[in-house]
Structure formats: C-alpha cells, structure tokens
Amino acid sequence: MPVVLLPYPPLTARTALQLIQDALGLTNAVGTDQTLTANEASDCLRKLNDLIEIFSINSLAVYGLGNQTFNTVNGQGVYTVGVGGNWNTNRPVRINGNAYSTINGTTFPCVSITQGEYDEISNKAQAQEYPDCYLYVNEFPMGLVTLWPVPNAITPVTFSMDMILNSVPTVATTLEFPPGYMMAFTYKLGIMLAPLFGKKIVNYPDIVKIANDSFGDIKRSNMSQKKRVMRCDPAYSDSGSGAGDWQSG
User: Fold this and answer.
1) Which of 190, 182, 170, 189 is closest to 29 using CA atoms?
2) Nearest partner of 16 among 37, 55, 46, judged by Cα
3) Which of 239, 244, 249 shows the shortest CA–CA distance to 229?
4) Pair (94, 149) in one structural domain
5) How far apart are CA 214 and CA 212, in angstroms?
6) Single residue among 112, 139, 162 that ends a domain in this structure
7) Over 70: is that where the pLDDT of 121 sits?
8) What pLDDT is attached to residue 9?
C-alpha cells in the first residue's frame, strides 16, 4: 500500500482551559472530576501568559520570522516602534540581522549596529536618501530604531522581526501552534502550576525531563530557519555588504 504524505502536519488546537487542565493533570493537582473555580482559572491563565512571554523573548522558541516595511520621514532619524508608534506594529523583542532600503526597485543594505558603534559616529546628523545602518533599542512600551545617516527622503526600509506569541485573553480562547508546541506548553505549564496547588515538582522528574526535551525539540526545529550571520568590513566581503553565511562564506 503506498504511503500518503501530508503536505504539512496539522496544527494542534485546544482551548486555554483544556491546556491548563492537561497541565494540572500531569501532577494530579486537580482531579479529572473536579472543576476549577473562577479564581483558580484566572491564576492559571496568568501563569500561562507568563510562560508565553518567556517563549517570546527566547529567539529559538519563536517559530516564525516576518519582514515588515516602514517608511522613513524626511529629516527624522529616530522612530518609535510599537502599537501607536511612528511605525505602528507589535513591538518587536528583537530585529534580526540586517535590514534594507528599496529605491526604484533596487535594495540597499542597512546594517545592524550596537549602541557603542553608534556612539562612535562623529557626525550623527549626516543625511542621505537611505540609511546605511540602524540601532534597535528594546525599550518599553515602544522600541526605538535610530537610522544613520538620517534619511532626507521618504524611503521604505524593510526589517526582519520575530513573530511575537500573543497573550491569551480568556480561558475559552482557542490556541493553535505548530507541531510540538502544545506538548512543550503543557509540560512547562505543569511545572509552573504545581506549586499553586501544593505539589512539589521534584516528585515528578519525568515531567521536568519531558518539558526540557520538548522545549529543546522546538528550538532545534526553529534553528534551521535562522542562519548565523557573520559581519566584517565590507571591503573584505564578496557581497559588498559585510555580511555572510558562516557556513558558505
């Protein structure tokens, strides 16, 4: 009998309450015939959102990248990034690698620099049509992007940003994740919830091992999407941008 290959494994989906109940069931914190009180459900939901935040700040736990393009403003070098900011989007935890400007169909690299590298620029007010580099500062509630040279035209600049895992508003919310994530969330959440219900997680070493293994599995899966980029002086780079894949040069 021929083997039928699915184009992609189906997403796993369940409500936040089902995920919480599965997590609590790992340590028998709540019996299968018991119903959570409203206060207990609220406490568990808060812990779930804490866990989602931890996943979001771990670069290899974030399962997708997305390019986002924003327009510069003539004479403006610093931009707030976040909901309601100069660039209105979800505030990124990080911007990945280099960006690029697009002018008449031609792209120009915009290299990521550190605060120290920006501080060493002598003429910070220097202007040109597109920026050569950018500095991202992960402030809150808005991130800050500083472009240099300061754009003197309206120019689209494209950045690669990690997808942020959204918080869960209610226990009735349906959750969908790529394969492997639901197990990692269930076991990690079980560890976080156990003390709330008087359980000592040290009594459940298998749960800790599965939680760590499943978390490691999704990070290894995501690693293939994120190549490590080495940057050097553009004069020594064949690409002319100063960036290169460390595996291929």
Assistant:
1) 190
2) 46
3) 244
4) yes
5) 6
6) 162
7) yes
8) 47
Q: Are residues 80 and 146 in the same domain?
A: yes
70 and 53 housed in the same domain: no
Region of poorest pLDDT, from 34-48, 153-167, 223-237: 223-237
149/123 Cα distance (integer angstroms): 9
Shared domain for 32 and 69, answered yes or no, is no
Question: Domain tally for the chain?
Answer: 2
Residues 69 and 158 in one domain: yes
Residue 216's contacts (CB-CB under 8 Å, 6 or more residues apart) are none
Q: Does residue 126 contact residue 192 with C-beta atoms inside 8 Å?
A: no
Q: The tokens of 209 are what?
A: 């091992």
Structural domain harbouring 152: 65-162
Residue range 124-168, pLDDT digits in tens: 999 999 999 999 998 888 999 999 999 999 999 999 887 667 789
Type of residue found at 85: G
pLDDT digits (tens, 9 = 90+) for 62-97: 766 678 999 999 999 999 999 899 999 888 878 888
In this structure, what are the phi and psi dihedrals at residue 121, rounded to the nearest 5 degrees? -70, 120
> Do 96 and 219 fall into the same domain?
no
